[in-house]
Design goal:
A hairpin with a 6-residue loop joins strand 3 and strand 4. The protein has 14 helices and ten strands. By secondary structure, the protein is an alpha/beta fold. The protein has one domain: P-loop containing nucleotide triphosphate hydrolases (Rossmann fold). It has an eight-stranded mixed β-sheet, sandwiched between helices. Strands 8-9 form a two-stranded antiparallel sheet.
Length: 367
């Protein structure tokens, strides 16, 4: 059974989409079958992977073909539009140069289901007409993962606190919180420590409602486990984060320890300490924590510098920042040499990060 990992932070612009793509690709490179899912109505992941630039490109994903389901909204339509057919797996899109990874495309119209889902999640315990909606997204992703025999489903979520994100997170197996080294990410540890317990309380209640368990798409019995943060866009100076960036890295880690971990622990959303410790031993990058950070769960899964021009080339050629070919760099001499060195560093970092994810999720299955 596939492990569903949500990448969530209600703060926007923290690299959720690039992380989903680069990390998913590395897991696929390690032999895992991966589906990356675009659940953001802005469809940035879909556009990045497929190279879409305008509405006409996206129209090709929205055909009037009832025999094929080709995006997230159409996949959910039977439940949300009360059609007399069952939800079917999405026809995922192959990804150039990575046969082990597939894209489940997004749809701008997914946002249309936000209000209906919100009502259903508040009232579905008493209204039979809404009982199929809270379990529909998990059902769709599970059926699609089973069709392709996927090991991992990575869900790229919007920067929102709406019902769709609430549902996606609380029906996932695990979740990762991407961060940037700034004030807003540090404050996100405070707001998340308030939001997540409420979402967890709602999900616990939903799992006890007979009407949701009797639904065509039953609400799943899930308690998502926190895998860790990913901190990126760090400016590195002489091999270490510049002072102002290190300050915010420390603030984020302190916020995770002081604000986030206690409420996650109270709601059974953490793995055992020894699992985080085992994952932290992988690799030899700049992952080591100061001694006062006693909880290894606060240690980032990945800590990445700014991608610089590599991100532009990555988006242009629809491959990870570490998998660009020589002719795609468009440079020669020392410039090309420096770019390749950066690519090798990112490859090593993402490789270590993928190994940590594998260890953490293997243990999450048994808890």
């Amino acid at each position: 059974m596939a492990i569903q990992i949500a990448l969530f932070n209600h703060k926007g612009g923290v690299g959720k989409t690039t992380t989903t793509f680069n990390l998913g690709w590395m897991l696929a490179e390690k032999g895992k079958k991966v589906i990356i899912v675009d659940c953001d109505p802005q469809c940035n992941l879909t556009g990045m992977v497929l190279g879409f630039k305008d509405g006409e490109d996206f129209d090709s994903l929205y055909p009037c073909d009832e025999d094929r389901v080709r995006n997230i909204r159409d996949g959910l339509e039977p439940a949300f539009e009360s059609r007399p057919v069952l939800i079917e797996p999405v026809d995922c899109m192959p990804i150039k140069r990575q046969p082990n990874m597939l894209l489940l495309p997004g749809h701008i119209g997914l946002a249309e289901y936000e209000v209906t889902l919100g009502i259903s999640q508040e009232l579905s315990g008493s209204l039979r007409t809404l009982q199929n909606l809270p379990g529909a997204m998990h059902y769709l992703l599970s059926k699609t993962a089973k069709r392709y025999n996927a090991d991992y489903v990575l869900v790229d979520m919007s920067p929102s606190l709406g019902p769709i994100n609430q549902n996606l997170l609380m029906t996932s197996d695990c979740f990762i919180v991407p961060m940037f080294p700034d004030y807003f990410s540090a404050m996100a540890t405070v707001s998340l420590s308030s939001i997540l317990p409420k979402w967890c309380s709602w999900a616990k209640h939903a799992k006890t409602l007979p009407l949701l368990q009797e639904a065509i798409y039953p609400f799943p019995d899930k308690t998502p486990k926190f895998l860790g943060t990913i901190i990126q866009n760090i400016y590195i100076k002489k091999g270490v984060p510049a002072a102002v960036f290190q300050h915010w890295i420390d603030e984020i880690r302190s916020g995770v320890v002081e604000n986030l971990l206690p409420v996650l622990d109270e709601n059974d959303m953490l793995l055992p300490d020894e699992v985080y410790h085992e994952a932290s031993l992988i690799g030899s990058d700049q992952m080591q924590l100061p001694l006062f950070f006693r909880d290894t769960a606060s240690q980032p899964i990945l800590q990445l510098s700014d991608f610089n021009t590599l991100i532009v080339l990555s988006q242009e050629h629809h491959v990870p920042v570490y998998d660009l070919e020589d002719h795609e760099l468009g440079k020669a001499g020392d410039v090309a040499k420096n770019m390749k060195e950066s690519m090798n560093r990112f490859r090593a970092l993402f490789s270590d990060g993928a190994d940590r994810i594998i260890i953490l999720t293997e243990n999450a299955e048994s808890h």
